[in-house]
Design goal:
The chain is about 10% helix and about 50% strand. It is mainly β. β9 and β10 (about 165-170) form a beta hairpin.
Length: about 200
Amino acid sequence: MRNWKWSFIFIVGMAGAAAQAESYDTLSPLNHSVRNPFQFHFTQSIFRPTFQEAETQYVLQVVSEPEDGRLHDLLVTVDENGDLLSLIRRGATGGKDEQVVSHEDLFQKDNPLARASGRDAIFVRCKDGDRSQGATIVIKYLHDGVFGSYRQMEGTLQRDASGLWKISSPTHGVAHRLTLRSRTIFGRLIGIDRIDVN
């Protein structure tokens, strides 16, 4: 059984790394004895969306159990009217560990935020709304890396009465933390079992 390695990545500048990952990746447990899983690394975005007079707002914290509890912050940038400009995933330790998804991409396509052994493992997108009023936010995650199956959770990304953007779920209300729970078989990590909302 594969021992899957997880890490959040930057979208830009990863084409070469992704190609290398595919050269190592295999779904066959038999090949695990002769091949090591691809080791992920963090890279800096070469082209990062920039917005003049943008305000950054903290949204929530992400706890990544597959990364041994590593912490990430989820933020947004807004314009002078408070409309959404971008969604940001930033390593809680600071530095250049940052990934930016523009509002255009957020509303138009699945945006990969993480990879696991050469494949995209977490996607985020918004639907049924706009950058002014808010929308449904969909997080799709790799549940079983052996068979390549995904699951997803949905919430609402919108402004509260004070103008701050928040993510909420129908059952938990406003979310302050998302915890990615590891899915293992015989002690080996194969995916994300679920995402807990607190």
